[in-house]
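Hello Y.,

Per our agreement to keep a running log of every chain we model this quarter, I'm adding this entry. I've kept the format consistent with earlier entries: sequence first, then predicted structure.
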Amino acid sequence: MSIRLKLLLSYAAMLVIPLFIMIITAGLLIVVFRGDVQSVRDQYVSSGGLFENHNVERMVKEIKRTAENNPAALMDSAYLADIDQELQMNKSGLIVRKADQIAYVSPSLQQSDILAHLPIFDRPGHIEKEDAKRYGNQMLETIHLDVMFTNHQPGTIIVATTVNPLVNFAQKFFPILFITLIVILITTHTLLTYFVSRSIIRPLQELKQAMKRMKAGDLDFQVQVTNKDEIGQLSLAFDQMRKQLQESIQTQLLYEENRKELVSNISHDLRTPLTAIRGYVDGIGDGIADTPEKRQKYIDIISSKAEEMDHLIDELFLYSKLDLKRLPFNYEIVDLFAFMQDWSDELDFELGKQGVHFSTQLSIEPRMKISIDRDKMRRVFTNIMDNCLKYMNKSDKRIELEAHTSENNLVIEIKDNGQGIAAEALPHIFERFYRADPSRNSLTGGSGLGLAISKQIIEGHEGTIQATSVKGEWTVIRIVLPLRMNKVGDDL
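Predicted structure for the entry above:
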């Protein structure tokens, strides 16, 4: 649930719940003031109770005046019927007791148990109101008036009003109910505000603690995402950022370790030809090369070593630019069959001069196109061929080239019958400065960057390169390139 929805629901609840409580309160007030929701009556506040009925009290006062001015009318059945009829409109009834005899009873009270619990006579003119009591199945609120009839006989006029139990409860406990509703209102708002703010503040506090840990350099933790709202999404993004930062630092440490290894390898590979150059230069300076033939030989060796250093530096420079992705690829759409045929013809000519039997099998449809960097791909093939020739130890030297297409890919396999590669060395031959020969002899092992450069170029074309070999028998370099008609990385 989103924070926006939470806030909307909480604010709606804060609005709806008070309105609901206000409706309940208004209903209770209506019940209290009117006695019945379905009948509208005039209400007033009297000294005898919290709320009273105006009409009933008015009728009691009229009966009192009649008793004082014309007591004979209290025995007039027509008068009593009129009074009773008006009282019935207010759900009240009339009982007239003369001495100890019941002189008149309203029809609604004739079966009531109140007749067995009438109050005793006190004195003429005495009026008393009694709280609502239950008489059998009825709850009645009574007002009795003591009078003196014409023959000086004492009597009592009783007005009994039917009371709803809910009304009676509300009349007695209205202050408590009202205070309770106020407390519920305040509690509801407080709890809603607390829980909503808690669901927002707690994740923010966890994020704050996570930021403090990151500031202290501690990235080995995980931010717990418990909600799916905006803060939950923020926590998830923060944890992903932490993971990426942790991976970046680990990668940086790995790069630093690789840099140290690179410097060590460069120092080793440059030191060997440099030491040889210094030795031959010292030999010339010390007069060891005392004949023109020796001096020329020393100079040729120095030149060869310098050329070797220059080649190593060029290889290193190319590898560094590829590794840093600062060497652009100049893609062009070429005829695949023509490109492979031209390259195989060149190899056949060059390898033939070195006594190598070269064979080609091109299973490629004519006029098939592919997007590649022509020069860099030639560099890949040249590096692979140089590697094949350096480790060729057979008298019958053979190199085979096979190319075919498979599932929108170009597959190129170059196989030689050289000394092969040991199984433990095979996974590492595409690593920089790796040589299968532990002696690291540059005459046979080269710079150690050729296959690493080839791998970077192939991966730059979004292809793969791998090797399989049997020690002492053969080695196969397999290259897979996607058949693209556009630049690598563009949409097809």
